[in-house]
Amino acid sequence: MKLTDTQLRRWRPKKRSELLDGNGLILRASPNGKRTWTVRYRFNGKRHRIEVGSYPDMSLAEARAKLAEIKIDIAAGHDPQLARLEDAVTFPEVYRSSSSRRAAAATVPKTPSVTVGCHPFS
Q1: 89-122 residue pLDDT tens
Q2: Which of 7, 72, 82, 112 is deepest in the core (most CB within 10 A)?
């Protein structure tokens, strides 16, 4: 059975639970109020789950549209999780960028020297 927006707004779980919309779209909820859209799919014979957004920020219609995009990617032979990992920033990239910023900051003097007459003041 397809979910409706009214059902989602009124749903108050007392423990961790899931609402199924069909075609692999799930709304997972915890008692503290966090609600997350999750898509279940199979790729190369293995089961996968991928989170696509949170409920108040992503509506039911947007979650269904995201599910359709994921299904198109799977039909084209692309794994959505791998695509997400390729877009992610890795630790070596972060380290290289921060170390280059530190090296650039180290070449700049911390206190500017002031010249009075012919004698430098620091």
Answers
A1: 677 777 777 766 666 665 655 555 566 666 665 5
A2: 7
Tokens, residue 109 = 């003097």
Please provide the size of the chain in residues: 122
Q: How far is 76 from 87, CA to CA, in rounded Å?
A: 19
Phi, psi dihedral angles at 59 (to 5 degrees): -75, 175
CATH code, residues 5-101 = 3.30.160.390
Give the residue from 74, 80, 60, 72 showing the smallest Cα distance to 20.
60
Of 23 and 94, the structure prediction assigns the larger pLDDT to: 23
Look up residue 117 and give its DSSP letter. T
Q: Please state whether 116 falls in left (phi above 0), alpha (psi between -120 and 50) or beta.
A: beta
Of 22, 54, 28, nearest in space to 41 by CA:
22
Which class for 25: exposed (0-12), middle (13-18), buried (19 or more C-beta within 10 A)? buried
pTM to 2 decimal places: 0.64
CB 18 within 8 A of CB 34: no
